[in-house]
Write a structure and sequence with these properties.
Elements: H1 3-30, H2 34-45, H3 57-77, H4 81-85, H5 88-114, H6 118-128, H7 133-140, H8 149-161, H9 163-173, H10 183-214, H11 222-240, H12 245-257, H13 264-289, H14 299-322, H15 329-337, H16 343-348, H17 350-354, H18 360-388, E1 401-407, E2 412-418, H19 430-433, E3 440-446, E4 449-451, E5 464-470, H20 474-487, H21 489-496
């Protein structure tokens, strides 16, 4: 590529990136999922409007998989392990049996409503049956009302786990009908992908934790880069042995994000930035891939299949999978409505195009319209659904976030704490915290003004605290802060009487 052409590509790429960032801000102010406006940027930049040509399904498939890996690494890094731990079993059932039920019901709907042959109908059902990690992570974490941690953990774990079974089914149905493997072979492949991919993700995550704890890097900025790098290694290792690189990447990020690593705040900020970049690139690319002039013929089929998926397939699969776990019906209803689709179905729709399946171009258009319409329906209405079902309530508190940076010479850690609205830390005096010695609050920032707090200083929502503690007492300090943040006066009373809060561990 000549140098002037390179400059032109970089210029166009930079303009598209800035337009996408502006779209993200606009989406936030309008209460819309950002992915919709990213897709719109790609469509506008495409050959039907501005004129950028992109129709390479094979390249889109490869870049899409890489983008999903980065998004899932960031999702794992920012997921709180205690939230997910209790929900692994129901999430695993939803990601496997739930996908199978959803594929069957959606495929039947496409067959009887649209007249598709069973092979193509089941392929369409497989493509749209996976919830999308990028959409779920982005929408749930931007909700104005905090959700119960077990509900968030269930949805995030399901979206991280269900890609592997769905990809297998899409690949299976992308082959000729005469070459379809039997149910036993499909089940064996799913188990291999899940087990081997999961083990690789856990192993790479553990190796990354050991390396980052014991190897001193020459620059702070290398720690976030190395952390995300381990997640990418897990993804590539899984794919190399024909296991699920997607699950490997998510679990590696989960292990790394929930370990005591240096510079956690910088790492999470870097991962969040790379996750946004991956989302922008992925959705813009998928917007470029479709031809807007061909979408009108896909509107009615997309609405029909989407309604079957939203109102029948998803509720049936959620109910069948969560009833054995005695999940309340309100939570089942919310989980059903929160089954968001995003980049994953559109990326999966490129698989049959690469495999030269008849009618695959029309499937891509159906999937694109379905994702846009039903993300527009489900995403903005999630807060109202949560309030209607009493899943989240106004005034509910959010968990405080504690970050650390190592002070190697002093064998100490520097903690930063922001008191969120609704936290029971509001109104607590410093001496009432009863932090384990030698932990001490050294600085308080309130309304942009810095204070050195005394024992009688009363904390308030929005305060930012700077604490110094030893590495030995850091975990106890974090537990104490979270206990008071959750229980308020009860936790203070327990601290005064030398007792631990139930479940504090």
């Amino acid at each position: 590529m000549a140098l002037p052409q390179l400059y032109l590509v970089l210029l166009v790429g930079g303009i598209v990136l800035m337009a996408s960032i502006a779209a993200a801000r606009a989406a936030h102010r309008l209460g819309l999922p950002s992915l919709l406006l990213f897709l719109a940027v790609g469509v506008i930049a495409g050959e039907d409007v501005i004129g950028i040509e992109f129709d390479d399904a094979q390249l889109a498939q490869s870049l899409g998989a890489a983008g999903l890996a980065v998004i899932l690494v960031e999702g794992g890094l920012s997921t709180h392990w205690p939230d997910v731990r209790r929900m692994l079993a129901p999430a695993g059932v939803l990601a496997t049996a739930g996908v199978a039920v959803s594929v069957a019901v959606t495929g039947a709907g496409a067959h009887y409503l649209l007249g598709m042959d069973w092979h193509l109908a089941l392929l369409l059902g497989a493509i749209v049956s996976s919830t999308d990690a990028a959409a779920v992570f982005a929408v749930l974490r931007s909700l104005p009302l905090p959700l119960p941690r077990k509900t968030t953990g269930l949805l995030e774990a399901e979206s991280g786990f269900n890609d592997a079974p769905t990809i297998i089914l899409v690949l299976v149905f992308s082959t000729a009908a005469a070459d379809l493997p039997g149910p036993a072979a499909i089940l064996g492949n799913v188990l291999y992908q899940l087990v081997v991919g999961g083990l690789l993700g856990l192993a790479v995550g553990r190796i990354g934790v050991a390396a980052l704890r014991h190897i001193a890097l020459p620059a702070t900025g290398l720690y976030p880069l190395a952390t995300v790098g381990f997640g990418i290694i897990a993804f590539a290792a899984g794919g190399f042995v024909n296991a699920s690189g997607i699950i490997a990447a998510y679990l590696a990020g989960l292990v790394l994000g929930n370990s005591r690593l240096p510079h956690r705040a910088a790492t999470r900020s870097f991962a969040e930035g790379t996750g946004w970049l991956a989302q922008i690139g992925l959705f813009v690319m998928l917007g470029l891939l479709v031809d807007p002039s061909e979408l009108s013929a896909a509107v009615l089929p997309a609405l029909a299949v989407g309604l079957v998926l939203l109102l029948i397939a998803r509720p049936v699969s959620v109910t069948a999978c969560l009833l054995p776990f005695r999940t309340p019906w309100r939570e089942q209803a919310f989980v059903s409505w929160a089954g968001l689709r995003g980049a994953v179905p559109i990326v999966l729709a490129t698989f049959p195009i690469v495999a030269n399946v008849d009618g695959s171009g029309h499937l891509l258009n159906i999937v694109f319209v379905l994702v846009v319409v039903f993300t527009l329906v489900q995403g903005p209405t999630l807060p109202a659904v949560a309030r209607l079902l009493h899943i989240a309530r106004p005034g509910a508190m959010r968990e405080i976030q504690v970050e650390s940076a190592p002070l190697d010479v002093l064998d100490a850690d520097l903690l930063t704490v922001t008191i969120p609205p609704g936290s029971h830390l509001h109104g607590v005096a410093v001496f009432e915290l009863r932090l384990p010695p030698p932990a001490v609050i050294t600085l308080l920032v309130r309304d942009g003004t810095t204070h050195v707090p005394g024992p009688d200083t009363v904390l308030a929502s929005g305060d930012e605290l700077l604490l110094v503690t030893t590495q030995v007492t850091r975990q106890a300090t974090e537990r104490r802060l979270r206990a008071v943040g959750r229980r308020g006066k009860l936790a203070r009373w327990l601290g005064e009487h030398g007792r631990s809060e139930p479940g504090a561990e």
